[in-house]
Amino acid sequence: MRPKVLILRTAGTNCDKETEFAFRLAGADTYLYHINRVKEEKNITSYQILCLPGGFSYGDNLGAGKIFSLEILLWFKEEIEKFLSKGGLILGICNGFQILLKSGILPHLDFRQKATLTFNDSGRFEDRWVYLKVTSSSAVSLWFKDLPPLITLPVAHGEGKFYADSSTLKEIEDNNQVVLRYVDKSGKLAPYPYNPNGSLNGIAGISDSTGRVLGLMPHPERFLFPHHHPHWEKDTTYPFGRKIFENVVNYFSHG
């Protein structure tokens, strides 16, 4: 079975084509649609995977991902609930992660915002490769299967600092919902530039409690081939991003 992937785009989305290519490379059937088309058709449940790619939706007016999140709340609440109840998977990358948090799909589905991604502590746009520690969360066996505990991926964002109040942060940690943390070469938490935005607890990605909804700031679609890595000629680095897409496609292809 080739899973069907719905990739939602809108004004300002700019990583949609790369994300579509990644899913196709992994063996999925992709459908890259503007959000207005999906508003009319209301057919999210006919897909197995819903992806919100990176970019600057609506120019990040009102804050990164905020307007898109309001569209989700206005148009797709029941569709999202049905989609997840049928076993669908949701992936939000960078701006998509921002949307998932601000629409209340993460950290758990109640459509109430509990956490955010805000301006980087550096006060600048951060475009760099980072080291990431893959944690022992429930999402790892699905999205990060057969990957080592330390991987590298690129980030590119101005509002990537994960922030939540102490009680929400504790809940996320206690429920093992943290999937990725920014770390140094040795796999330990470290300050800037290893943590490029000042995220609390070094959080770079989280899932819901089931592991089927994943949001992450790094861009897996930008590491699909070894030569995407800046040191590819001297390092035998595996294209970790490609494996993430292969894992999610194989989840449906092989059961």
Q: Layout of SSEs?
A:
Layout: E1 4-9, H1 16-26, E2 29-34, H2 35-41, E3 49-52, H3 66-75, H4 77-85, E4 89-93, H5 95-102, E5 115-118, E6 126-134, H6 140-143, E7 150-157, E8 161-164, H7 166-174, E9 178-183, E10 203-207, E11 213-216, H8 240-253
Parallel strand pairs: 1-2, 1-3, 3-4, 4-11
Antiparallel strand pairs: 5-8, 6-7, 6-9, 9-10, 10-11
Helix pairs in contact: 1-8, 3-5
Characterize the structure shown.
This protein is an alpha/beta fold and 255 residues long. It has a single domain (4-253), classed as Rossmann fold (3-Layer(aba) Sandwich), CATH 3.40.50.880. It is 28% helix and 24% strand. It contains 8 helices and 11 strands. The protein has helices at residues 16-26, 35-41, 66-75, 77-85, 95-102, 140-143, 166-174, 240-253; strands at residues 4-9, 29-34, 49-52, 89-93, 115-118, 126-134, 150-157, 161-164, 178-183, 203-207, 213-216. The strands form 2 sheets. Strands 2-1-3-4-11-10-9-6-7 form a 9-stranded mixed β-sheet. Strands 5-8 form a two-stranded antiparallel sheet. Strand 10 (203-207) and strand 11 form a beta hairpin. Helix 1 (16-26) crosses helix 8. The N and C termini lie close together (9 Å). The model has no long low-confidence stretch (mean pLDDT 95).
